[in-house]
Amino acid sequence: MERSGVGVESCMPESVHQLPPDTSLKNGKAEVELVIFTIVKDLLSKHNVHPKNIDILVSNCSLFCPTPSITSMIINKFGFRSNVKSVSLSGMGCSAGLLSISLAKDLLRVHKNSLALVLSMEAVAPNGYNGTDKSKLIANVLFRMGGAAILLSNRKEDKQLAKYKLQHLVRTHLGSNDKAYQSVYQEPDEEGIVGVSLSRSLIHVAASTLKANIIKLGPLVLPYSEQLRYGWSVIGNKILARGNRNEIPVPNFRKAFEHFCIHAGGKSVIDAIEENLKLQKEDGEASRMALYRFGNTSSSSLWYELCYLEAKGRVKKGDRIWQIAFGSGFKCNSAVWECVSDIDPNERNAWSDRIHLYPVEIPVFDC
């Protein structure tokens, strides 16, 4: 707990505070309703969108998959149209938020003049681990309750209202590698108690998957000067044998992006990505603060981080944001957004009540 990077304000469902915790289906549905119903109501009212105007509905919740589905729960609660195109994703891990964006993007390419609502969360109540396997207990320390709702549009009339434009979305899946596939794995322990195991190789796997992802992303976002510099460094490293052959050259992504949203999977994950991408500490501030205040909220963590940057007044029109998500499978997904409007830092979001208290100094404990 001391080394997790998660603070005391992070939230658990009421049922988890019971002794013993109640992991029933009833409490799982209650958590989903509390989170999803609240954020959908807030989003629709904020933008004055009637539920029947939603054409596409995509939800993702990795470990909780009720029948009827989560999207059906939303359709029933808010009265969406009978022909709404709905999809509930499960088992996709913490990177499912960007997978949902990718799916909505593809659907919007096919269905013109449409509104898409994307909902991202993870259900904590039914998925706590009550055994003694250390690799499965780590998830209890990191994961907390939270969720995000995102409204996407390809309608011309919404162009002036949009805050961001999706420029690129690059997905990488290393599931064919057994080590990567088993790095985040749901299974029973020796006593038959089910939990999600986080292996010791997770950080190494995440770094390898990120490398594969940025090989595809780099040419899309890096300026030609940086691509040329990177190309020459690779040649010098591999062919001309200059310098340290074991050192892998890394492009300077700070020349391509003003802001970075690294999935708040844990303190060690954020540290490793910063090191691998040669980023500055301030580049990971939003990720660390989101982890500290909200915990690992799985697929919704990237949106808490973007809200942090907005509340701090750091996102300006023309800025580009790189969202980096990791998930079981093992997957690394990147989304690149361009800010296309002036962001009001005083606009209400998840940080509005205490943004003035952040950033905070997170205690460092000896390992």
How would you describe this structure to a colleague?
The chain is of the alpha/beta class and 367 residues long. It contains ten helices and ten strands. The protein has helices at 25-46, 70-78, 96-110, 134-142, 178-181, 202-221, 224-238, 267-277, 285-294, 301-311, and strands at residues 56-60, 85-89, 115-121, 147-153, 164-173, 184-188, 194-198, 259-262, 320-327, 331-339. A hairpin with a 3-residue loop joins β9 and β10. α9 (285-294) crosses α10 (301-311). The model has no long low-confidence stretch (mean pLDDT 91).
Task: Kindly list the characteristics that best describe this protein.
very-long-chain 3-oxoacyl-CoA synthase; globular; fatty acid elongase activity; EC 2.3.1.199; ACP_syn_III_C; 367 residues; acyltransferase; 10 strands; four-stranded mixed sheet
Cα separation of the termini: 12 Å
The number of helical elements comes to 10
Gyration radius (Cα, Å) is 21 Å
Q: What structural category arises from helix and sheet content?
A: alpha/beta
Total beta-strand segments: 10
As laid out across the biggest beta sheet, the strand order is 2-1-3-4
Q: Which parts are unreliable, with pLDDT below 50 for 5 consecutive residues or more?
A: none
Mind describing the biggest β-sheet? 4 strands, mixed
What is the residue-averaged pLDDT? Answer: 91
Globular, elongated, flat, extended or rod-shaped: what is the shape? Answer: globular
What percent of the residues sit in helical stretches (DSSP H or I)? 25-40%
Q: Beta-strand level of the residues, as a percent range?
A: 15-25%
The ordered string of helix (H) and strand (E) elements is: HEHEHEHEEHEEHHEHHHEE
Protein name: very-long-chain 3-oxoacyl-CoA synthase
InterPro entries: 3-ktacl-CoA_syn, ACP_syn_III_C, FAE1_typ3_polyketide_synth, Thiolase-like
Region (Disordered): 1-24
Pathway: Lipid metabolism; fatty acid biosynthesis
